[in-house]
Amino acid sequence: MGRYLKGGKITGGPNPNRDLLTLRERGVVQILAEEKSNKEIAAALRLSVHTVETHRSNIMRKFGAYSLSRLIRYTVRNKIVQV
User: Fold this and answer.
1) Strand positions, DSSP E, the chain
2) What is the DSSP string of 26-47?
C-alpha cells in the first residue's frame, strides 16, 4: 500500500508513523520507553552518548514531541514500540 502526504502528515500503509524512523531510531525509542537513560542506551547499543542524544532529538522532531513523556506515550499508543 502506498503512502502519501495529506495535511502535512504521512498516511497510508500498515503503520506509516513507524516508517518515519530509521531502524536505529526505533531501537533508541524502544529503550527510551523502557525508562533507560541516554548513557544506558549508549552502552546497550554501543554508541556515544552524543549519538544517542542526536537520535533522540531527531525522533522527537519527527513526531513533533516536545517532551519525552509525550514521545513515549505516542509511540506506545501507536504501536511503534512495546513496553
Assistant:
1) 4-6, 9-11
2) HHHHHHHHTT--HHHHHHHHT-
Residue in the block written with cell 530509521: 22
CATH number at residue 9: 1.10.10.10
Report how many domains make up the chain: 1
Q: Which domain holds residue 21?
A: 4-77
Q: Which residue has the higher pLDDT, 29 or 20?
A: 29
Mean pLDDT of 10-35: 78
Is residue 82 a part of any domain in this protein? no
- Rounded to two decimals, the pTM is 0.74
Tell me, yes or no, whether 69 lies in a domain. yes
SS3 state at 4: strand
Adjacent-strand bridge partners of 23: none
